[in-house]
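As a warm-up, study this chain.
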Amino acid sequence: MSTNVDPLVPVAMIVAMARNRVIGVEGKLPWYLPEDLKFFKRMTQAKPLVMGRKTFASIGKALPNRLNVVVTRNAEFVHEGVRVCHDLPAALALADQHATIEAAEEIMVMGGGEIYRQALPFAQRLYITEVDCDVEGDATFPEIDGRMWREVQRVAGQPAEGQPHYDFVVYERTAD
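Now compare it with the structure written out below.
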């Protein structure tokens, strides 16, 4: 993969993760947090989305009012409502071009685990719903180097009965 990417529009990543960094189990979220889903929609509205094919498959359709860019090595993959790129640099370039034309404030990377690992070096902001539990899963968010990120906002979620506690946390990159 080429790291020859320098988007004009800031790259952000959005994720909900458990304390042990688990983000998914067999293509599904390990929890149902309606407030987090509303947060995701609000934060990604009118912004280009970059996601892997497995993440797209777990959603099953293009998300409305957003450019949906799916990264896959499968040259045969096509789906209505999405643009397909075969590596992350191409996906970020396409999203950047769209964001510049549409005056979107940032590009949103929304997973899964491998896309997050590849995109972390390009990200300037992280929107993380920190879910206060440890769960078993097969997809994880990469380790965050605390020397390179600083917390700039934390808002407590309002879990319903039986839901784990969670916080909406925003981190910004401090150094390269």
